Amino acid sequence: MVGFPIEDGFPAERLFNQGYSYTYDDVIFLPHYIDFPTNSVNLSTKLTKNIELSIPCVASPMDTVTESSMAVAMAALGGIGIVHYNNQHSEQAALIRSAKSRHMPFISDPMFKSPSDSIDSVDEFTSLPCVFVTESGNSKSKLLGVVGKSDWESLSDKEAPVSDYMFESLVTASSSYTFEQALLF
């Protein structure tokens, strides 16, 4: 191993022209310090000329992978699910109609924290996937960020203020939007 150069990635040209491909088991992501905020990373990509994805994730068009529930889940995350072709055209259309008719659930009783608050235990999430961070810690003030349950669980310093690790790149719409307008936003 002496003198063996450690590579930090390699060009796309090499990846696509080498004659073989990689699977997840072939790739290791090494932890490393970064000198930029994580919320400045943009993973969006074009699937087609007219379809942009927020994240570069596509569910396989296999009958064991992508039915309407997977298509909805992928869309909710910013990716896309490609419906498989092992059905009649009418069945494919029904899967797509089913996926498009589902809506993300609303959080009817959200929890709010102010930027200086901390989250003391996982129990504070109750059955919620996230906690909202607002200027004054209530629903009447400006939304600043969101803390996901999994983000909190991975913290080493659980007493840190939520402003240290909240996700700030939020896409918001006016409260005057109807449900249908919000779906198109």
UniProtKB/TrEMBL annotation:
<feature type="domain" description="IMP dehydrogenase/GMP reductase">
    <location>
        <begin position="22"/>
        <end position="115"/>
    </location>
</feature>
<dbReference type="GO" id="GO:0005737">
    <property type="term" value="C:cytoplasm"/>
</dbReference>
<dbReference type="InterPro" id="IPR013785">
    <property type="entry name" value="Aldolase_TIM"/>
</dbReference>
<dbReference type="GO" id="GO:0003938">
    <property type="term" value="F:IMP dehydrogenase activity"/>
</dbReference>
<dbReference type="InterPro" id="IPR005990">
    <property type="entry name" value="IMP_DH"/>
</dbReference>
<dbReference type="Pfam" id="PF00478">
    <property type="entry name" value="IMPDH"/>
</dbReference>
<dbReference type="GO" id="GO:0006183">
    <property type="term" value="P:GTP biosynthetic process"/>
</dbReference>
<protein>
    <submittedName>
        <fullName>IMP dehydrogenase/GMP reductase</fullName>
    </submittedName>
</protein>
<comment type="similarity">
    <text>Belongs to the IMPDH/GMPR family.</text>
</comment>
<dbReference type="InterPro" id="IPR001093">
    <property type="entry name" value="IMP_DH_GMPRt"/>
</dbReference>
